[in-house]
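Minutes, project check-in
Item: structure for the 164-residue chain
Input as provided by the requester:
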Amino acid sequence: MNFKEITDLIKLVNRTDLSEFKLKDKDFEISIRTSSFQGKNTQVVQASSPQMIQMPPSTTSAAPPSSPSSGSTPSSEKDVESTEGLLEIKSPIVGTFYRSSSPEKPAYAKVGDIVEKGHVVCIVEAMKLFNEIESEVSGTIVKVMVEDAAPVEYDQVLFLVDPS
């Protein structure tokens, strides 16, 4: 694993709610512990050698998928102060969230779109299988809760929908 792959892995771990991540591959071993694991504002990366590397938290302000930073949401999106009265579309599986079937295609669903029950709103890729996620509710999408190409957990909220 090269340096760029390690830094990409650290960024990926920062975007999730993980507190610790370990990877073993033949003669290579890496362990990443986030600040939520240690209760400190540092991140520790340990390679197979006994050296410890102290790294400051990412300056990209990566937020967990359940609360994306304001820069990652469409500009037409209104800030949703309260989720009271809103319905949630949740991920039925663990995987990687995609808003469209390919980068050059439009998003399945965006803020302001009206969705019906059974309408495809996104794709979640799990183990090289691309699963179309259908809405289980009807209404208008008011907020996209996850960045495109971000990892998602089972039962994580993907969209907030106004049923009225």
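Outcome recorded: Residues 3-55 form one domain.
No further action items on this chain.
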